[in-house]
Predict the structure.
Amino acid sequence: MPDMDAPSLRPTAIITGAGSGIGEGAALRFAAEGWNLALAYLGEAQRPAAEAAIARARETGADGVALETDIRDEESCRRLAEAAKSALGGARALVNAAGTTRIVPMADLDGLSPAIFHDVYAVNVVGAFLMTRAAAPLLTASGDGAVVNLSSYGATTGGGSSIAYAASKGALDTMTRSLARVLAPAVRVNGIRPALVETPFVQGRDPESYGRRRDRQIAGAPLRRIGFPADVADTVFFLCTGANLMTGEILTLDCGLHLEAD
C-alpha cells in the first residue's frame, strides 16, 4: 500500500465496467492497495458495487468517485476523466473493463445483423478508444501511466458468444498495440485475454451455454478450473504497477487451454 497521508497524494485508477464482474474485481483490488478510484458503471443495478469499492478505498484513507458512464459517448468519457482530475488530482492507471456481447450461434450468419456488429464494436472497441483518449493527458502527466484493456480468449480462437464479439476483441488487441506505440514512453498499454471467468456478464446471458463451457474448460484445461474476477484483477494490478518493461503485450489467462490445442 502506498505510504500516503492524503487522497490527493495517492495514485488514481479509472476503471470502466466497475459495477460488476472483472471491473468490479479490479476496483476492489486497487481499493485494497490504497488507490483512489474513478469508477464508471452503467445503470442503477451496478451503482451499489461501484460505491462499495469506493467505501473500501476510503477505509484505507483513499477516496473515489463513481459516475454513470456510457463509454460509447465521447462526452461521457471526458466527464469521467475530468472527475478523476478535479476530485482526485489525476490518474495513473486506466482499466478498460467495460464490455458487451450478443449471443448469436457462430453458424447462424443470418442472425448476426449489421446492427449487432455495430453495437458490439461501439462498446468493445470504440468505447475503449474514447476512454483511453479522454484519460491519456492524465496518464501522460503522471509520468508512469498504464492502460489495461480487457480482451478475451475468443480473440485468438474465433470462439465465444458470437462472431461479432470475437472479432471485436481481436480488434481491441490490435488497438492495444497501436496505442502502446503512440502513448509511449510515458504510458504503457497492455491487454489481458481471459478464457471463461465466472461473472454475471457470462452467466446471466445464457446459463445453459455457460454451464457447458464451464464443464469443458474444467475438463480440458491443464489447471482444471475456470477463472474468477479476483484472478484477473491480480493480473490487471500487476500490469499497472509492476510490469515496467512491458507494453503492447496481451497476456493470456486460459488455465492452460492453449497447451491442449497443440
